[in-house]
Amino acid sequence: MLEQLLALAIFVAVFAIAAVRNVNIGIVMFPVACVVGLLIADLALEDVVAGFPLSILVLLVGVTYFFGIAHSNGTIDWLIEASLAKVGDRVALLPTAFFVLTALISAMGAPLGGLVMAPMGMSVAHKRGIDPMLMALAMGCGLSAGAFAPTSLFGIITWGTADSAGIELSPLLLFGVAIAINIVLLVVAHVLFGRGRRRSAGTPELAKAMVARGESLDTYGQSSLNLDNAGGDPDERGPVGRPTGLQSLTLAAMVALVVVVVVMALRDSQPDIGVIGFALGAILAVIDPKAGKAAMSRIDWGSVLLVGGIITYVGVLTAMGVVDLLGEKAADIGAPVLAALMLCAAAGLISAFASTTGMLAAIVPLALPLISEGGIPGWAMICAIGVCASIVDVSPFSTVGATYVATTVDEAERPRMTTLLTRWGLSMVVVGPVALTLTLILPGMAFS
């Protein structure tokens, strides 16, 4: 018992120290997992290292490399320009358009890739008299929704963890839940901030500084679009040309990837999205070696290391019986729904100030005993934890929220944005768990 508690305390301490010091948690967690495994758990080093999730590594690298090529050859920029051209000067549709665009980009492997829309979205909001809070929430909800696609990081981690534990969870169901919740939040944002003050459509210089955790927007793949004219009057924007041959081929490959994933999921198969991504990326790289080489820098190695280190340590905790111990304690509460509610709230609260990716990798495995001991449907519990950890990301204390504050064009609006995003993000710590418990967990228990 003492050894189990010591190992768990070390896990929490390492997580907290790395988060406070803004160091990749997985890099710190992996060697500590080896030390704890050898000295406390009495495991062989090979057994500890075997806990590194190679399947998730293949998924993340394959998917982010493929979509990295789509960024490098200009396909993503073409999609954005074509989509905004369709919206034209219909101001009321702009927040929804940025919701959809951000969701699409976020679904392409790395959720933070959706931040490429932040400078453009906030510039459009300033020029067209849209409340910047509405635009920030629209993009934040889009990022959260797209992140749970079967091709994106949050979806890969959440679904992959459930699958490895033998929990039946369709990746499309997880994606659908995330989309539904975030659409509801988008509607609420329209109600609260859709009557924003109309401002003069000036053309101030776009804010370039990124203050989120000392990171740059370039980390997520900055767009080469002309942001100064984005969302302006139709006459100010040049016509969107036809995609090049290579871009057309890339679009076809993207459609093929989505179709294969959807068809195989509907047939109760488990598509290896990483392998498919590698295959499609290899074809495009052979055709355009320059784009293939540029895409190498877009592989999300940071997330691979983050998830790998945390899951390796969780594997040590599992071998020591810590996860089973937590499950027994949760069952002792006597009210599994209350335990589930508390777990969702903890996921949201910690994620508001720390890495959502790390939180998912750490807390989803810890929910497995509650599922087996408390009678809560696994699919409902996993979906609830994932969404609760994601919808708080617009908090200005996280990378996403800080980016929206930093890219707000009118500097006088930034204090207001910080205040409102703080209120919204922290309110989601309560609203998210309650709403998902009522709409997913309780109905799931009733019909299971």
From TrEMBL:
Any coiled-coil regions, as ranges: none
Keyword Transmembrane helix applies: yes
Transmembrane region(s): 26-45, 52-71, 91-113, 134-160, 172-193, 249-267, 273-291, 303-323, 335-368, 424-447
Origin superkingdom: Bacteria
InterPro entries assigned to the protein according to its UniProt record, in alphabetical order: MatC_N (IPR009827)
Keyword hit for Transit peptide: no
Domain Dicarboxylate carrier MatC N-terminal: 1-147
Keywords: Membrane, Transmembrane, Transmembrane helix
Protein name as it appears in the record: SLC13 family permease
Organism, scientific name: Aeromicrobium alkaliterrae
